[in-house]
Amino acid sequence: MTNPTLATQSVESMQSAGAPNRGHRLLSLDILRGITIAFMIMVNNNGGPAAWAPMHHADWNGMTATDIVFPTFLFVVGVSIVYSIESRLARGARCAELAWHTLKRAVILFLFGLVVNSFPYFHLQHMRFYGVLQRIAVCYLVIGLFYLFDKRVWTKALMLVMVLIGYWALLRFVPVPGAGVPGRDVPLLDRNQNIVAWTDRQLMPGHLYEDAPNFDARDPEGLLSDLPALGTTLLGLLTGMWLRSRLPHETKLLGLAAATAVCLNLGYYWESWLPLNKKLWTSSYVLAAGGWSLALFGILFWLVEMRGWGRGNAKGASGAITRVLMWPWIVLGLNAIAAYMMSELLWGLLDMIAFPFSGRHWSALAWVRVNVFGQIPNPGWACFAYSFCYMALCFIPVWILYRKRIFLKV
């Protein structure tokens, strides 16, 4: 944790990636990142099938609150790219230096993803190479380099349009080998016979998240679906460029509201012939999920940047209350990657702890879920309590890092 490549230990050195510099950065972005990672930990550990419907991913087509979590994190990555690069350039960094830094961070993130996927057994014959951190790494690298060498807004907007339309055409018109043309010979977005799953089965047989023989294997973070994920990151990048302008906050907020309305309307309108689908990351899903990310960010921008919630300069009882309300999300937001990795690795460690009890063999997590939280009469509340407590458990080491001014960065 003391390696300067991976961590910084002062507020000043964290400006480019989430440090609490009240005068020069968006505290609302840190809070959005913290809320997102907290909910991500909870839905990844939702307590089981009895959890409330919003705590589950949509089975295939459709979108729940859980399906908005990952795209919101990529949206935050896009906004952060603008602030990170501009902050470093203002401190005298050269473009070549920043390009190397971007590549290095992406590689480390990708390797972190392999550790998360494989821990604790590291079975190479079935190691999953795709994943959440891997997708973040790809999007951060491509969009980060794009912005570093081209600051024009219209090129980002053009790339967004091309990615969304191009991916729609790929899903709709490219024949799936052995199945035919989607929408004619095979249903559009068929669960198994789609070009995205087919490509992943050819490239990574035996290494996919939903692995199965023949035509049933697929991966929600597969290769081709990285393309629309770039679109999600571009939405964040364009938002960051808008917020970096010299316009007054009121105008910026109106812009966020307008972008929210456009994305939501386009996304849900497009759904009529291209369903929302998180596992395929469809173009309609990019816009609809991006609209909800923009809506939440707009609310936080208004509360934090315009009304002063959570900032040290807010006075009186109301100021103290808002600082308390925002503090947990700031803590998590400044160490989001560390929080995510801890939540995944902790699950692997606790799952290894096994013991006999009442004639059954239990893992530690299964025993706690059934024999502690299972005593809550309402199954939905039982699952929610388990999920919240697991997130709170992961919060403790992140809070310790925050207290020591240690921030895991890649």
Estimate the strand proportion. Answer: under 5%
Count of runs of 4 or more consecutive helical residues: 13
Query: Secondary-structure element sequence?
Result: EHHHHHHHHHHHEEHHE
Principal-axes geometry comes out as: globular
Return Rg in Å.
Answer: 22 Å
Strand order of the largest sheet: 1-4
Mean of the pLDDT scores?
89
Reported for the largest beta sheet, the result is: 2 strands, antiparallel
State the secondary-structure class. Answer: mainly alpha
Contiguous uncertain segments of 5+ residues? 1-23
Q: How far from one another are the termini?
A: 11 Å
Total DSSP E strands: 4
- The quaternary structure here is single chain
Q: Please indicate the count of domains.
A: 2
Helix content: 55-70%
